[in-house]
Amino acid sequence: MPVCFLPTFIAPSDQEITEQFSDHGPRKRARTNQSNTGLSEEWFPWEDKITCSLDILMHLPRSVFSRKQLDLFLWLLRINDVDDVPSTKSLKTLNKILQNSCGVDTLAYDGKLGHRYHVNNMAQILAQEMCNPKVRPHIHFYPEDTGKRLDESRQAERWLKELRPEETTPMVRVREDDYYIYEPALLKDLSMCIPERWFTRNGTFFARAWKMEIRVVDGVWGWVVRKDIELEVSEHQLAKSFASLEKEFERYRVPHPSLIHGYFPKEESVISSLLPWKHTNPVLGNRWRTLAKGHRVVSLPLWMYCDDTSGNISKKWNEHNSFLFTLAGLPREHTAKEYNIHFLCTSNLAPPLEMMDGVVSQTEVAQRDGIWAWDSEHKEPILIFPAVLALLGDNPMHSEFACHIGLRGKFFCRSCWVKGSDAEDAGNIFPNIDNDSRQNNSSTPTQPSTSRKRKKYEEGYSAMLDRVSAFVKLGEPRNKAQTQRTLDSYFQKATIIGSKTELKKARTQTGIKDTVQEFHFEKLFSSYKGKHGPQAKQRALDAAIAELPSDITSPVWRLQGLDPHQDTPVEILHVVLLGFIKYFWRDMVRNQVNDDQKILLIQRLNSVDVRGLGISQLSGETLVNYAGSLTGRDFRTIAQVAPFVIIDMVADDVFEAWLALSKLVPLLWQPIINDIDKYSRTVEHAIKNFLLKTAQWTCAWFNKSKFHIILHIPAHIRRFGPAILFATESFESFNAVIRAKSVHSNRQAPSRDIAMAFAQGNRVRHLLSGGYFIPAHLLSTPLNETLPRPEMLVPTNWRTVGPGPLHLIHADQTVQNYLGLLAVSERTLSLGICIKLPGVLGASAGQLYVTGREVCLLNGDKCVVGQHVIVQPPRPNMPTFIACLREIIQQVGSQNHDNSRPDGLLLETVDSSNTSTKFQMPRLQYLNEWSFVPISDLLCTVNTQHDCDTNKCTTSGFRYVYQERVRTQRRAPIVQHIKNPDDLILNTAQMRDAVHLQKFRIPPAVLDEPAVIDASVRRMIDKRKKSKEDTEKEVSGQASMRGHSRGRGARARGRGRGIDNPTRARGHGRSSLSMPGELILDFSASNV
After folding, report:
1. What is d(CA 753, CA 759) in angstroms, rounded to the nearest whole number?
2. Worst-scoring range by mean pLDDT, 28-32, 500-504, 744-748, 992-996?
3. Cα–Cα nearest to 681, from 710, 638, 654, 714
C-alpha cells in the first residue's frame, strides 16, 4: 500500500475507562481525542505527550524493549504519580491503529521451497521516502553525464548507459509539457525524434534519441525510426510532445505521430529490413502516460543487499539471511547512513533465493502498476517505481545470486570463465602415489599402487604455469542468457531417468548451480526411487514433472534488466580488508616472525604516529596477539601502517608484496575520481603489480580465488561508481540491529516478529522526520481495499505530526541521535574552529595576536601544530604541495578571534620530490620557505612516518601504562626517534583523503609478467620436490628407528605430524598446507 493514512481513533472500552488506582495514586482518565481537541492536535497523531513518548521509546529502530520491560517502565511511571499513564493493552491498540494507518505492512509468503517467511511492503517504504522532507530533497532520479569525473552511482555507466530504458525515469517535464521515452517528439528545427533515455548534464536535461523519417509504406504516409542514427537532444531543442503533436500535427504538415511503420536496426534503410515497432502502442504512446494521468513519473534505482548474520549474542550460530536496500539516487554521504538503510525481510529457515522470490514479486508489481506517493518537495502526487541497480553481498552470496557453484569450484569466478586446477586433466598432471599406499619399505615412490584409496594428483610445471597465467588475467565474461540456456539443459537432463550423476558432473564442468532448481530436481529424482521397471519409473517421473510449478529457477532471472554475473560488483570489504590484508597479516604473525620479533612488532605498533589517518592510537597487543579475531576496522588500520612496522622482519619478496598492497588499497577507497580513464589505468596497473609481487613471494596464494576476483573491480568501478559506493560496511553494521531484534523476541516466529519490529521503526522514523501522511477520515475508500486515485491525493489532505512531537525531538538530541536526524552534525559546527594553547584563556593587555594549538580544517580533519598538510595554492593551475603547520594565528579583537576561528596559518613548505627507495614513497625535506595562508587553502592533513630503518631507531623510549583511565607506574617501551627526527616519509598508504594524496603517489615499476610467473612456478615446483625429498628421508629415518626399537612396522600411531603426510599439520584447528621454509596457507572454508 503506497500511501500512508490515519483513521479516527477508536473509543476505549468501559473496562479501560474504569481502570484507575486508589485515591492516593495517579489520575486516570478516558483516553479519547474528543476529550481535549487542542491537546490532540498538538500531539497529533498521538493523543498526548506521555503516549507519544512511550510509542517513540518502544519503536525506535534500535529500540529493543520487550513486553516485560515495558510493564516495568509503566510501573515506574505510576509509582512516581505520573498522570494518565496508559496501560499495556491501550499501547498495543494504539500501535496497531498507527501501524495500519501510516506504517508499513508485513506480508506473509509461502516459499517455493516449503518455508514461510515475511517481507515488509517495499511500495510503502518507497512511498514514505518520497513523503519524507529529510530524504526527498537529496534523491536524484536521472543519471548524470559528468564526463570523466565519477563520484556517484548516477554518473557511472550502469545507470547512465546500460540500465534498460524501461527501468529509468521515463519522462521529463519541460515548460509544463511531459516528454516520454519511446514517443515521437518535435524539435524546434521541425525534425522528429524518439527519445530513448533521459539524463542530465550541468543541470540541463538531455535525451539519447533515434531519428525519425517520413516514409511511404504500402501506400501509407507515416514514420520510420532510424535506430542506426542516434541523436543527443537538449531540453532546449524540444518543441512539442507526443500529446501536443497529436492535436497540431497538421499544422506542421507531417504524418500523425502515431503512424509508425517500424524501425530500421541497421544502416541499410531498405523496406525489406523494416521491423515492427513494439516498444509502445503507437496510438496510446508510453504506458506510463496513461497511468500517471498528467503527474510526474520517476524511477528509484536500488542497491539491494543480502547477507547472513547470527540471531544470537552467544557464539552459537543462528543463521538469519536478511534483505536490505538503500536508494542509489542518494548521495554517498547519505547512502552510508543507517537512517537510509531499509529492512525488507529475514529468516532463519528460508534460504536467500526463496525469500528473494517475495522481494522480486513486489518489485514486479511496482514496476507494472507504479506506486502513488506524495512528493514532499513539489507538493503534488507522483508515480514511482523501483529498479534494482546491483545486488550487493559477500562472495558466497554473490555466487548464489549468480547461480554459481561457488569459490571452491573448478570454475570459481562468477563473472568469467577462468579455470582453476583440474584433477581430471590427465594431459597436464601426473599421479602422485599417496604415502598411505606404501605397504612396506620395499615400495618405491614410482611403483604403482595396489591400494583402492583415491589417488592424489600434483600439477606439473606446464599445468601450473597455464593455470597461474590464466589466474592473473580476466577470462571470457559470463552472461545471463548463457546461464539460462545451461539451466534449461539441466532440466532436460533431469527429465531422464538416472540422470542425477550426469547433472552433478555438468555442474562441475560449467560452474553453474541453481539451488532453487536443485530443490525441484530432488523431487524428480526421489519420485521414481524404489520403483521397479522402466515404465513404472517413467510414470512416476512424468507425474512429478506435471506437479512442478511453472518456474523452477532462481527468481533473480525475473529481474529483466539485471545480469547477476556482471551486476554483483566486487565488494572491497571482504575481498581486500577481510581477504588480502587478513591473509597477509595472519601469515605475518603466525609464520614470518618469532616470539622476540612479535614483542618488537607490538612495540612498533604502539609507537606509530596515527595523525592524519583518522584513527585512535594503535593497540599492538590486540593486533598481534589476537590476529585471528580482528575485524575489518583493524585490517583497515594495518593496511595503512604495516610497511613501516615490518620492514626488517620479513624477506624482501614479502615486504614488496606488502608495499604493492599498500599502494592498491587507497586507490580502491578513493571516493572521488576526477578522470575515470586515467584512474582505471592506474588501478589496473596497481592490481597487476600486486599480483605479480605476490607471485614473486609465492604463487601458492593463487589458490585463493579473491586474488583473481579483484581483477574485475576496475570494470565495476566504471559501471557502478567508486568502489566505496558498493562497499557493504554500513550494511554489515546494520546486522547488529537485526541481531538485537532477534535476541529480544520470543523466537517463535522470527521472520514475522523481526519484520514487524522494523516496520514499526519505519513508522516512527517517518513521523518524527516530519513525513506526510493522509488521515483515514479524508479517504473515501480504505486503502487496504483499493489503491488510491491521484485525484484523492490533494494537498489539503496531507498532514504531518503536530508541534508537540517535533518540539520533543528538537529540544533534546537523544532521539535524533537514535534516528540519525541531526540536521547539523557536531563535526560540521566545528569546521574552522581553533583551540587555544593550554593555559591560555585570552589575550593580555596590549597583545595583538594569539596562537592556537589545534584547528579543524574545512574537510573535518583535526590538525595540530607540527602536523603536515596538503595545500592548494590560490592561483589557478598551480599544483598542490606539502607543508608543515607551524602556527595558528588569531588577531585579537577580530571577528574570527571572537568566533574562535583563525585569521591565518603559518606554513613551512616541504619538498616531496625525493623518493625513499625502500618504501617507494616520497621523502620529505623542509625548505625553510614560509607562507601565511587562510584556512580555506588547506585541503587535508597527511600522515608522515619517521624513516626508522635508515636511522636505526630502537625502543629506547617509554610511556606510562594507563589502566582504568588512571596512569600507573608501569612503563611500556616505545620507539624513540633520536637520530634525524625530521627524516620523514609521506605515507601514501593513507586511506583518508586519498583523492588528494594520490597525486604524490610513486607509481610502481612495470614487471615482466611472463618471466615473473615462470620463475614463481619453477620455485614452487623446486620447493615441492625438496619437500618430498625431505619427507621421504624423514619417513625412512622414522621407520628405521621404529624397526630397531619396537618393530611396529612402517606406520606410526599418535597425534604428531605423522608419516602419512608430514607436511600436513594436525591439531591446529585449521586446514593448512605447510611448505618447508615457506608460509602456512589456510584453506579452510571460513577463509574463502
Report:
1. 10
2. 28-32
3. 714
**Per-residue pLDDT tens over the stretch 972-1003:** 999 999 999 999 999 999 999 999 999 999 99
Buried b (16+ CB within 10 A) or exposed e, 291-329: bbeebbbbbbbbbbbbbbbbbeeeeeebebbbbbbbbbb
Statement: residue 478 has pLDDT above 90: yes
User: Who wins on pLDDT, 232 or 22?
Assistant: 232
Are the C-beta atoms of 698 and 1079 separated by less than 8 Å? yes
User: Under DSSP, is residue 883 helix (H, G, I), strand (E, B) or coil?
Assistant: strand
- Report helix angle 803-811 to 750-768, nearest 10: 90
Q: What are phi and psi of 281, to 5 degrees?
A: -80, 115
Residues in the chain: 1088
Other CB atoms within a 10 A radius of the CB of residue 554 amount to 25
What residues does 305 pair with on adjacent strands? 324, 392
Q: Where are the beta strands (DSSP E) in 393-443?
A: 429-432
Q: For strands 921-933 and 954-963, give the pairing.
A: unpaired
Sign of CA dihedral 333, 334, 336, 339: positive
The dihedrals phi and psi of 22, each to the nearest 5 degrees, come to: -70, 175
Q: What Å distances lie between residue 338 and 141, 342, 513, 736, CA to CA?
A: 21, 8, 34, 11
- Lowest mean pLDDT across 223-232, 245-254, 854-863, 870-879: 870-879
- Burial (CB count <10 Å: 0-12, 13-18, 19+), residue 1068: exposed
CA distances from 778 to 133, 688, 774 (A): 22, 64, 7
| Average pLDDT of the residues in 306-330 | 88
Q: Which tens digits make up the pLDDT trace of 525-560?
A: 999 988 888 899 999 999 999 999 989 999 999 999
How would you label 367-382 residue by residue, b for 16+ Cβ within 10 Å and e otherwise? beebbbbbbbeeeebb
Distance CA 512, CA 533 (A): 32
Type of residue at 467 = R
DSSP state of 773: B
Q: Which residue has the higher pLDDT, 356 or 29?
A: 356
Question: If we measure between CA atoms, which residue out of 767, 1048, 762 comes closest to residue 63?
Answer: 762
DSSP SS3 for 614: coil
Rounded CA separation 729/74 (Å):
38
CA angle 404, 303, 1086 (to 5 degrees): 45
Distance CA 184, CA 225 (A): 10
Q: Residue 399's Cα: distance from chain center in Å? A: 15
Pick from 524-528, 895-899, 1046-1050: least confident = 1046-1050
**Where are the extended beta strands (E) located within 26-68?**
none
Beta strand pairing status for 849-856 and 862-864?
antiparallel
CA distance 53 to 70: 13
Max avg pLDDT among 534-538, 743-747, 795-799, 891-895: 534-538
C-alpha closest to that of 51 among 65, 67, 69, 33: 33
Q: With CA atoms as reference, report the closest residue to 362 among 171, 158, 106.
A: 106
Q: Taking residues 819-844, what's their average pLDDT?
A: 58
Cα–Cα distance for residue pair 750/757, rounded to 1 Å: 10
Q: How far apart are CA 839 and CA 940, in angstroms?
A: 28
Specify the residue for cell string 508537540: 804
CA-only gyration radius of the chain, Å: 34
Contact between 490 and 517 under an 8 Å Cβ cutoff? The reply is yes
- Confidence band for 271, pLDDT divided at 50, 70 and 90: low
Quick one: which of 301, 401, 303 has its CA closest to 355? 401
Relative to beta strand 296-310, strand 380-392 is: parallel
Element (H, E) at 386: strand 380-392
**Does residue 1043 surpass a pLDDT of 90?**
no
- How far apart are alpha carbons 310 and 315 in whole angstroms? 9
The one-letter amino acid code at 989 reads A
